[in-house]
Predict the structure of Nickel import system ATP-binding protein NikD.
Amino acid sequence: MSAGIVNALLEVKDLQVFFKGIKTITALSGISFSIGESETLALVGETGCGKSVVAHAIMRLLPSESRVKGIVKFRGKNLLELSEKEMIEIRGKEIGIIFQNPSLALNPVYSIGHQLAEPLHVHRKEKKERALSMAAGALKNMGFANATEYVRYYPSWCSGGMNQRFLIAASTMLDPALLIADEPGKGLDRKCMSELETELKKLKVEKKTALLLISHDLGFVKRLADRVAVMYAGEIVEIADSSSVFESPLHPYSKGLLNSLPEKGFIPIPGFSPSLSNPPSGCRFHPRCSLRKMHCTENHPDLTEINGRAVRCFLYH
Ligand SMILES: Nc1ncnc2c1ncn2[C@@H]1O[C@H](COP(=O)(O)OP(=O)(O)OP(=O)(O)O)[C@@H](O)[C@H]1O
């Protein structure tokens, strides 16, 4: 089954997120997927489709004006039912997160070494000096030749690429079983992207870290992901092995997304993503779909299993 796997490390079932305001925004309308140990699942889709909300909902980092429904099971525990104290234990220790912007995620007033050593000191009760030397060791493992120097650096002394790698080191100091990386390559140049890719691959092979990868860079996703979930307007419209999605996408939206790749000629999908406070009736993609039938304008398709993958489109029902 593509949407779910046996013995999943993380199992997300029917996740719904609403933001209250003048109009209620239904950011997620029933997202389900699972991730196995050392597996990389990528979430892809146009801006505003809800990828970051998935990451924040899993980590329970959404603002208080949001309402979350569904199940987020990690190692058998529903994270949505845990106390904040239990969640603090899970964050960083068992699930690491890399946010979009390293300069905001790293604290400018603490040295890199301090920020890497802190989780070891707090969660593993390591003495400060030992935690610092372990931090230097982690940087050395990441290929920083003069790691003992870097632990004394402050984020503002370093490039965006270096800070992003420090952030990965910080979020993996406690060897989390799952890493959530939300646009980890945003703003990085090609060299830094390639270093980031190497780092994430190393974590998978050497530490068996599972990865929930959120990225607009489909080339990056293709090289890293085992499975890919394509999101549109708060829903998963297709989920399958990476090679199936990239080589034979089924959903018209997945096809459109891949056609916007440079090697496919940058063909944009016509129209715009719908508002999540008032999505179209029927299939949410129908106003932009060249294959739509009358049926698609009135009925909402389910995510249907087909040959070991799942797709939300009447063409395959
Ligand atoms: N705190 C919030 N209050 C109200 N609406 C929100 C909030 N956070 C997110 N949203 C809405 O939820 C929807 C999904 O946002 P999200 O950031 O998850 O999109 P995304 O797919 O990650 O986009 P991008 O690729 O640009 O990061 C958007 O319509 C956004 O406006």
